[in-house]
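Deliverable D5.2: sample structural annotation.
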Amino acid sequence: MIEANILIIGGGISGLSTAWWLAEGGARPEVWDAAPRLGGKIRSHSESGYLTEDAAGILMNFHQEVDQLVEASGLSDKKISRGTDMRRYVVHKGELRPVPMKLPALLKYPYEQ
């Protein structure tokens, strides 16, 4: 049995990413979390044919390390570039309504329509 030489408290995306990078560098991290599952608040739900996300639903890529992590985790084929056809929706008063994708428009969005 290989013993851990680094303890990471918190199994959310930051703790798991840190553990992965440390392991890639030869360390032996161990992740502890109070929750029964790792991943923190990030979770997907499928209900009535709809997929919804809790917390982060996207991965902002401003650094080369993000590409490396996605590639090494085998998720490259799941990447979608944000394009003009991507939309977000909310259910408001029983109706599906589009939500603006850009922050200025989102801040001005009339929620009580």
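Annotation notes: The beta strands are 6-9, 29-32, 43-47, 50-54, 88-92, 95-99. The mean pLDDT is 80.
The annotation will be released with the project's public dataset once the embargo ends.
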